[in-house]
Amino acid sequence: MKFSGDVVVGLEIHVELNSETKLFCSCPRKEKENELPNSRCCPTCLGMPGSKPVLNKAVIDFALKLCLAMKCKIAPELIFSRKSYFYPDLAKNYQVTQYELPLGSEGEVALSSGKKVGLTRIHLEEDPASLVHNGGVQQSASVLVDYNRSGNPLAEIVTKPEMNSADEARDFMKQLITILGYLEVFDVNNGIIKADANVSVKESGYSRVEVKNITGFKEIERALNYEIARQKRDVSEGKTIAVETRGWDADKGLTYSLRSKESEEDYGYIIDPDLIVTEITPDWIDRINAEMPELATEKLKKFLDDHGIEETTAQVLSKDKKLAEMYEAVSSKVDSSLASKWIRRELPRVLNYQKKTLEESGITSEHMISLLTLISGEKITEKIGQQLINKLGEGPYDVLDYVKKEGLSVVAGESELEILCGEAIQEAPQAIEEYKSGKEKALNYVVGIVMRKTKGQAKPDVVMKVLKKLID
Amino acid sequence: MSNEQIVSEVESLNKEYRYLNEVSIQESSAKGKLSGVCVSVKDCIVVKDMQSRAGSRVLTGYSPVFDATVIQKVREQGGTIIGKTSQDEFGFGSFNTNVGLGLNIPLNPFDKTRCCGGSSGGAAGLTQKAGFHHIALSESTGGSIVCPAAFCGVYGLCPTYGLVSRYGLMDYANSLDKIGPMAKKVEDVALMLEVIAGYDEKDSTSVKHEKEEYSSFVGKDISGMKIGVIKESLGEGVDPQIASTIQEKIAVLESKGATVEEVSLPLNNSYSLAAYYLIAMCETSTNLSKYCGMRYGKHESLEGSFNEYFSGVRSEHFSAEAKRRIIIGTFARMSGFRDAYYIKALKVRTKLIEEYKKTFESYDVLISPTMPVIAPTFSEIGQMSPLDHYRMDILTVGPNLAGLPHMNIPAGFSKDMPVGLMVIGNHFDEGKLLQIGKVLE
Asked: Which residues pair with B134 in a beta bridge?
């Protein structure tokens, strides 16, 4: 391949699909709370002699959604192969994966700059067990194996080497996470996402280095920045960049050599004879297409063109499916600029503070509609609105009832206000004197008295107006 | 017979002939088609809480935590399991002489200087010798049911691939492995097939085939049946006395109203052995990877790196033939060789199946000798090269590659040793095999 960029990056990303059960057996996929090691497995995911794999078809639906969202060509058949290598995390010393014919091929993902990154393939495979090194990978004298994760479904996404910086790689991962979130095929909060990155720099003549096992998408940018700098520094110091595989040590923030790669590993692939060929029919693809949600890019376009909301806000809202959907529901009832402002800023602020997801908080579009309708109708002040949403963060309640019960509505009628203002003037003769003698600010004290009397429901500027009218 | 009597008979037989790797009684409380029947189980089929080793030392001490589907079905029909029968290690042989390290080689029931055939040799020998009502569960990858059945003079039926669940079968070559019954009477073969056949959601390659009453085929008239005699199987390389025994039986079938013609299967004759051994070895070299001394079976004290540890366990506890097949199978699927061997063998297999399917457009069943020789003596076997061993399967690998049902029928004797006739049916035509079997009884 001919490269011209200063830096060339390609990614291989493993995404754990959030099916109920594992890829080839009926063990639960999801980690249970406080589960013991090796408690979520059966003869099949332990590779016991005589056990056989049976494909979980729900996973194919998930993978098809992913392929379609990334504009892949879909293979007419799903075929699994055995990838043979000996490693203690592999229950059978081979991994069931796809080889000749991946489920999806030739896809693409648009970065936020509009640049498109091509995908070589998307395929399904089983997750190995997890290895537990007491005291860290490089120090531990022994390794323990936990098969709870063994057999979990993974989608492997392989990009073309078309990214030219760590920043682009991070952006790619952000776009990917957004798509995964929209498709609801990945548990954004607890799911595992891992990447291997191929990195080369112009100075070395694009000598290809693979950095393996970067966990979490924020780590990818760190690892790449380190590795790009390392390669450039080594070249400038006259060292050659070897074609090799390196590991990423997240604690130390550096990559280290795992093995040189003079010859490609030979996995001796054969078709897995325990599994049958699954035909991916046009009807099946049609059904998945019909189930596909509107994706972030489509939402963004709609928010900008049809709703006319501010660009950054539109981007933030469209990135998160739940927020975007809530915004759409709320903006059908209240002003879209008010709705977008509150759902972009106030709601995430409260969720962040409470350390809850939107789902966990129980805050619904109806809550937001009630709240924002009160604000836009000037029934309550924005300040009261903030108190109400803070309270929603603690737990859902009926906003309208609460406002009524607590008497939080704005004392909007000026006649009512005039009475309260009159009382306040009586109670603060000194401040009134000062005001009359030209100290404009002295009136703030009187406004404060009125606000206390109204429990904060009044609008301060209106109070000020009424006070001035009464005094003058 | 009481359990004690059965155990004592099996144990004394075992002392003399070494048919079982494990003698252990598990009774069923259910009442059904197999009530009062003793069932021996080839070592490669897992039985819960009964040491199951597939004839290999590497699985010493492995006590399965689950039953194979066929075992579950046997229990549901009231069968009594009596133990695990001897086999070539993982099924790697035609004489049951390639047993795992430290395990015994079974002796032919007609001549103790000769082999039982393989790889289900223990099952065949025990079936011939048992004085109680007994049916064996055996398994075939490339002929491992009919070969020993022929050498020991019993009936052995290898069903259509997918008819009987492989769940719980320790794999030799998954695309070829089939579980089937062996018995002294055709009726018992049919009875056991009725019990074990059927779709199983735990085996992806299991087929949804309508349930059949196999017993109803036993004794059914064969007049009008069209029989093809495989020409290549009665010529060069086949013991002339075996050929003439088979010819006599063909005459019997004609006398019962069947039409007999010679057919030729040139592709199978030339390529089935090569295709079979490549596919079987490629698959098995991946299946055997799991035996690394980590989770079950033999393990050693933990020393050195993982690579050193598992290499040590495998070097020490696999026999020479297992290592040979791992090495050949791994070689044939390496990049650079994969297309020339593994992929080509898969393509050849498709061609061979087409040749059979075309032949079955004109014939109900095909007939050949099961084996080209009578059971060889242990000293003869000692003189054979690995390739001579593999050539023994020339007549049986074809139907196994094509997943076709085939059955050994005892046909007579040559030099006082049993001669077997093999009848091959189209997919799911087990019934016709049973018809022929009864007619030739």
From this structure: B38
Chains A & B: contacts with CB separation below 8 Å: 101
Q: How many CB atoms lie within 10 A of CB A238?
A: 6
**Number of structural domains chain B divides into:** 1
Q: pLDDT for B172-213, tens place per residue?
A: 999 999 999 999 999 999 999 999 999 999 999 999 999 999
Q: Stretch A322-347: mean pLDDT, rounded? A: 92
Chain B positions touching A83 (Cβ under 8 A) are none
Q: Does the pLDDT at position B44 exceed 90? A: yes
Q: Are B239 and B414 in contact (CB under 8 A)?
A: yes
Host H or E run for residue A194: strand A193-201
Count other Cβ atoms within 10 Å, centred on residue B352.
23
**Distance (Å, whole) CA A353 – CA A349:** 6
Residues of chain B whose beta carbon is less than 8 angstroms from a beta carbon of chain A are: 45-46, 52, 54, 59, 62, 64-66, 68, 166-171, 173-175, 201-205, 282-283, 285-286, 289-290, 292, 294-296, 302, 306-307, 310, 330, 333-335, 338, 342, 346
User: Minimal CA–CA distance to B231: which of B268, B184, B274?
Assistant: B268
| pTM of the shown model | 0.89
Tokens of B279: 């596919």
| C-beta separation of A393 from A354 below 8 A | yes
For residue A3, what are the CA distances in angstroms to A121, A226, A245, A438? 20, 21, 20, 75
* Residue A1 forms part of a structural domain: no
User: Cα(B222)–Cα(B322) distance, rounded to whole angstroms?
Assistant: 43
The residues in A 67-86 lying below 8 A from B, measured between CB atoms, are: 82, 84, 86
Last residue of a domain, one of A406, A423, A443: A406
What's B60's domain CATH number?
3.90.1300.10
Mean pLDDT, residues A229-244 taken together: 92
Note the pLDDT tens digit of each residue in B105-157: 999 999 999 999 999 999 999 999 999 999 999 999 999 999 999 999 999 99
Contact status of A229 with chain B (Cβ, < 8 Å)? no
Contact criterion met (CB < 8 Å) for A270 and B335: no
Q: Using the Cα atoms of residue A282, residue A283, residue A288 and residue A294 in order, give the sign of their dihedral.
A: positive
Say which residue the tokens 């060339």 belong to.
A8
Q: Domain count for chain A, please give it.
A: 3
Assess whether A18 and A140 both reside in one domain. yes
CA distance linking residue B358 with residue B336, whole number of Å = 34
Residue the block writes with tokens 């896809």: A107
Identify which of A118, A106, A120 has the alpha carbon closest to the alpha carbon of residue A72.
Answer: A106
Strand pairing partners for A107?
Answer: A119
Please check whether residue A289 lies inside any domain of the structure.
no
Using CB atoms, which residue from A48, A94, A271 is nearest to B289? A94
- Residue A336 belongs to domain spanning: 294-406
Q: State chain B's maximal CA–CA distance in angstroms.
A: 70
The answer to whether residues A371 and A420 belong to one domain is no
Q: State the residue range of the domain holding B308.
A: 1-441
Residue A460 and residue A321 in one domain: no
Residues A43 and A67 in one domain: yes
- A43 contact B CB<8A: yes
Looking at this protein, which amino acid is placed at residue A328? E
The DSSP string of A48-79 is: -TT------HHHHHHHHHHHHHTTPEEPSEE-
Same-domain status, A180 and A327: no
Please indicate, yes or no, whether residues A270 and A340 belong to a single structural domain of this protein.
no
- Sorted by sequence, the CB contacts under 8 Å of residue B30 that are 6+ apart come out as B75, B76, B77, B78
Residues of B annotated as part of the active site: 42, 119, 144
Tell me if chain B has a CB within 8 Å of the CB of A89: no
Residues A244 and A311 occupy one common structural domain: no
Residues forming beta bridges with residue A278, ordered by sequence position: A78
Q: What is chain A's Cα-based Rg?
A: 30
Residues A317 and A276 in one domain: no
Closest CA in chain A for residue B333: A268
